[in-house]
Inverse folding.
């Protein structure tokens, strides 16, 4: 008898009611896991978004004062496509987000406000795998989110949050990291893939500066390619992959 493969992705648990997605920039979730979010909201799960920045430094031809509000509008429209109506911004500066207690406090406060069982973030590792370097904002926000999931449950860390009426929340059960080079779990992308493409396309201004391709062709090829690649370890079903940290 041969051994079963050891690198297959497990189904991400779905016995939860509320999720909070915390990322650095507008479009991070659309590149990372919007297909999974669409499937979750269809199934009646509540999902809210918290973004550390407004992505104001993301378009070279637009100064931050104009770019930030535009990207915020695109992010809210993008979230609505996959059934998310709550989108919050922490107003850290795009491109220079610093890992530290200030960021952890802001994310812990968001976790206490929304009281999720599942927290979602983006790859916090130095690379996307191999030599493709990650950005400092992604690393800082992803790492701070992992730490804040614990901070949120401890009343003696950031005690001013309790004074503001944000009681500790120690019921985060998992932190799921999208885009990780070391995924462990996955979600079927098939039901939400078309909406994931439409969601990414709401970031049209950004996409038009990023690629000379037709934006719809670019978005569909990118998301379909990643879903198929993850599906090779998920029984052949196109998937969104996550590295899951139980708590």
């Amino acid at each position: 008898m041969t051994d079963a493969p050891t690198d297959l992705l497990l189904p991400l648990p779905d016995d939860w009611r509320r999720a909070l997605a915390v990322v650095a920039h507008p479009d991070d979730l659309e590149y990372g896991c919007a297909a999974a979010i669409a499937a979750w909201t269809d199934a009646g799960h509540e999902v809210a978004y918290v973004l550390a920045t407004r992505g104001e430094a993301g378009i070279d031809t637009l100064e931050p004062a104009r770019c930030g509000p535009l990207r915020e509008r695109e992010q809210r429209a993008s979230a609505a496509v996959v059934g998310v109506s709550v989108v919050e911004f922490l107003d850290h500066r795009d491109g220079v987000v610093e890992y530290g207690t200030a960021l952890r406090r802001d994310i812990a406060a968001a976790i206490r406000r929304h009281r999720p069982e599942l927290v979602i973030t983006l790859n916090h590792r130095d690379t996307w795998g191999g030599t493709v370097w990650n950005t400092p904002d992604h690393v800082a926000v992803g790492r701070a989110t992992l730490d804040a999931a614990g901070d949120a449950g401890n009343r003696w860390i950031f005690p001013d949050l309790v004074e503001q009426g944000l009681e500790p929340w120690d019921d985060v059960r998992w932190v799921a990291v999208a885009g990780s080079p070391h995924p462990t779990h996955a979600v079927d992308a098939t039901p939400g893939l078309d909406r994931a493409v439409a969601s990414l396309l709401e970031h049209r201004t950004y996409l038009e500066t990023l690629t000379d391709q037709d934006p719809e062709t670019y978005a569909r090829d990118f998301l379909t390619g990643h879903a198929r690649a993850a599906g090779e370890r998920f029984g052949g079903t196109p998937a969104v992959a996550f590295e899951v940290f139980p708590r």
About this structure: The first helix runs from residue 28 to 32. Confidence is low (pLDDT under 50) at residues 1-5.
